[in-house]
Amino acid sequence: MAVLAIGVALYSLRFWAVLLDAWPGVDAGIRGVIVEAPLAALAHMLVAPVALILGPFQFMPRLRLRHPRAHRLAGRTYVGACVIGGVGGLTTALHASGGPVAGWGSASWPCSGSGRRSPLGGPPCEGGSPDIGFSCASAMR
Q1: Following DSSP, what letter does each residue of 79-93 receive, concatenated?
Q2: In 12-99, which residue ranges form alpha helices assigned H by DSSP?
Q3: Which pLDDT value is given to residue 94?
Q4: What is the DSSP letter of 110?
Q5: φ and ψ at 123, to 5 degrees?
Q6: How far is CA 11 from CA 5, 25, 70, 114, in A?
Q7: Rounded CA gap, 72 and 140, in Å?
Q8: Beta bridge pairs of residue 117
Q9: How far apart are CA 87 and CA 70, in angstroms?
Q10: Phi/psi of residue 124, each to 5°?
Q11: Of 81-85, 87-91, 111-115, 137-141, highest mean pLDDT
Q12: Shortest CA distance to 48 belongs to which of 20, 18, 8, 85?
């Protein structure tokens, strides 16, 4: 799972070129989304990969035990990147290049886990899949 998350994050680096008006490997549908909602789309595409890179490392016991300050800083950065990237993603979901069904599906997905308990025994996960093991309360300690 970590390899896939980091792979997606690295692949997303191509969107930084959009800031220089270069579009390497960006198909016309995604380009249209960026043109329609540039701030939200680029917030999602440039900030969410930070969460994808940091997320897997948050579950490494060695990091938590030996470097608790680094773990907390990474956790706060992760949560911030999730919020910014998530809001950007929700905002651009209605402009999805896959059409209205893809847009509504993407926009409604975060609500699918609402009210379920975190597998770590924390409070209910607010949006997103409870399967990732994220405890909302433990992130801000």
Answers
A1: HHHHHHHHHHHHHHH
A2: 28-36, 38-57, 61-66, 68-93
A3: 80
A4: G
A5: -70, 170
A6: 10, 10, 25, 30
A7: 8
A8: 124
A9: 26
A10: -60, 140
A11: 81-85
A12: 85
Q: How far is it, in rounded angstroms, from Cα 20 to Cα 135?
A: 38
Q: What is the overall mean pLDDT for the chain? A: 79
**Residue 112 in this model has a pLDDT that exceeds 50:** yes
pLDDT for 1 = 82
Separation in Å, CA 88 to CA 45, 67, 115, 122: 8, 31, 23, 26
DSSP code of residue 123: S
Q: For 60-77, what is each residue's pLDDT tens digit?
A: 999 899 999 999 999 999
CA atoms within 13 A on the CB side of 36: 14
- pTM, two decimal places: 0.70
